[in-house]
Design a protein that fits this description.
The two termini are 44 Å apart. An eight-stranded mixed sheet has the order 6-5-7-8-19-18-15-12. It is elongated. 38% of the residues lie in helices and 19% in strands. It has 502 residues and is of the alpha/beta class.
């Protein structure tokens, strides 16, 4: 009788080992099946030899059965919980820079996908962890996002088909369009999705010939960073000289006037006017005097360019390395361009005021979308001419001061003229583009002018390197606490508990 009980125990153990082996490999191989079959045969043979009533009366078997039943119930509950959580996830990112969360632009893009996106990641199994985590995070926000990991050494034919020559390359496919990226960062992957889901490339034209900032310059006053951001969003950035032309080319979707220093010819202004009257979109970046001479022209588009310089007297900007001539903006209007900027700051070095002009035309909408703080002032240019220090007087306008305005004009056939006017061009320059939310603000303007509102958001950025710098005293303090004091306390508590038990 006793030997049969041992056989029954052995049979159950063998079946358990076989099931564990299957859970590890996820494959019903010959070894795991053989172990389970042997265990099943031993169990059945033992139960036949044992009388059932004696088995049921065995106290140890009753206790063991109860324990087995509890284990089965716990495993079943955990399985159901895991099944539910796999389809209804809830995640919390407690890192300061939200390192493990996707950016608002990425989540917005994924939720609005209209076509399936397939991503093939060519990575070695040893290096697949970070890529797998990122792609899995993307798939949580859209059922249209599908992905797979391929080892190029195991499937060289597939790697050759997509012309993959390096480990870690990702191929993003949507229909007949595909884009290959060399690294699995969120910024690269999101930009690739944008490129394969847009049917055609739209052009952004930067006007030249009047001393404007150049998109080909990597200097502090250049716009190379802005150009790169535009191209990453599947737009094309080109320079356009209006002199000698009759009109703006039809393939231009947005015109940007980036800080002209010389006056436009009347013929050039007429070309701009005709373009905007036909439903064009433009971004005017007009610095304070001495400058553009376009103040009168901008009244045609219902904005008043102030003959002033806006300064920030709050002192808060100095904490971030900005002087009073670089007012910061944290107050925004109710407009799609700035709806995602709540709680974020933008900087506008040497800016002027831009005030909406009221109009009774129901087809015209003009509104300010960015204002400086209450401790800012608009100082008249005549007052500060030739002075090294800026003094604030009772005649100076106190903030909030509007510095960005949006004009929308309804035309026939459901067309719209879209204009954004900013009293500064430096905020988009290489020196300030990456400061705070300046880059997001600039690209949101471009997306709105393009009528691509689904791309208006906060864009993914490279993970921030967060280091702790300690002086020698702090280093010694950490050493004593972690290496000496805390272990000694733990050891002393252990000795005390041992003595009390004795």
């Amino acid at each position: 009788m006793k030997q049969y009980k041992w056989l029954l125990t052995l049979g159950l153990i063998l079946m358990g080992i076989g099931l564990i082996a299957y859970s590890i490999t996820n494959v019903w191989d010959v070894r795991s099946l053989a172990v389970i079959c042997v265990g099943l045969i031993l169990s059945i043979f033992s139960l036949i030899k044992l009388e059932l009533k004696d088995v049921l009366r065995d106290r140890r078997l009753i206790y063991g059965g109860n324990m087995a039943l509890v284990i089965v119930l716990v495993v079943a509950i955990l399985g159901l919980l895991n099944f539910f959580l796999a389809r209804h996830t809830w995640r919390v990112d407690t890192t300061a820079g939200r390192t493990f969360s996707l950016s608002p632009q990425t989540t917005k893009l994924l939720k609005n996908l209209e076509d399936d996106i397939n991503v093939i990641a060519f990575v070695k199994n040893l290096n697949k962890g970070p890529v797998e985590d990122l792609l899995g995070e993307y798939s949580h926000f859209s059922k249209r996002f599908k992905w797979e990991l391929i080892d190029p050494d195991q499937k060289p034919g597939l790697a050759k088909k997509y012309n993959v020559k390096q480990y870690g390359n990702l191929v993003v496919i949507s229909g007949i369009r595909e884009e290959q990226i060399s690294s699995s960062s969120e910024e690269n992957l999101t930009n690739a999705i944008i490129k394969v889901t847009r049917e055609k490339t739209k052009k952004v034209a930067f006007i030249t010939g009047h001393g404007e900032l150049s998109i080909n310059s990597a200097d502090r006053e250049g716009l190379a960073n802005a150009k790169s951001a535009i191209e990453e969003q599947n737009y094309e950035a080109v320079e356009l000289l209006l002199a000698g032309k009759d009109s703006i080319p039809q393939d231009i979707s947005v015109v940007i006037i980036p800080g002209p220093k010389n006056i436009f010819f009347q013929g050039e202004l007429k070309i701009l006017t005709d373009y905007l009257n036909n439903g064009g979109s433009a971004l005017f970046l007009l610095d304070p005097p001495p400058g553009t001479g376009m103040e009168k022209y901008m009244r045609n588009w219902y904005v008043e360019m102030g003959n002033d310089l806006v300064i920030d007297a709050s002192g808060f900007g100095r904490l971030l390395g900005a002087g009073p001539e670089i007012p910061l903006v944290s107050s925004y209007g109710d407009h799609p361009i700035v709806e995602e900027l709540t709680g974020l700051m933008t900087f506008f070095p040497m800016t002027r005021s831009v005030t909406p002009i009221e109009t009774g035309d129901p087809k015209v909408s003009v509104m300010e979308i960015a204002q400086t703080g209450s401790n800012s002032y608009a100082i008249n240019q005549k007052k500060i001419a030739g002075q090294e220090e800026i003094s604030i007087g009772p005649e100076d306008q106190r903030g909030p001061i509007p510095i960005v305005c949006v004009t929308t004009i309804e035309l026939d056939n459901r067309r719209k003229t879209r204009i954004v006017t900013v009293g500064d061009s430096d905020f988009a320059s290489n020196a300030y583009y990456t400061n705070q939310a300046n880059g997001d603000f600039f690209m949101n303007i471009i997306s709105w002018l393009m009528a691509d509102e689904d791309l208006i958001s906060i864009r993914p950025k490279d993970p921030e390197m967060r280091l702790i710098n300690m002086n020698p005293a702090q280093t010694r303090t950490v050493f004593w606490l972690t290496v000496i004091i805390l272990p000694v306390i733990a050891f002393a508590l252990g000795i005390l508990v041992y003595i009390r038990r004795k």
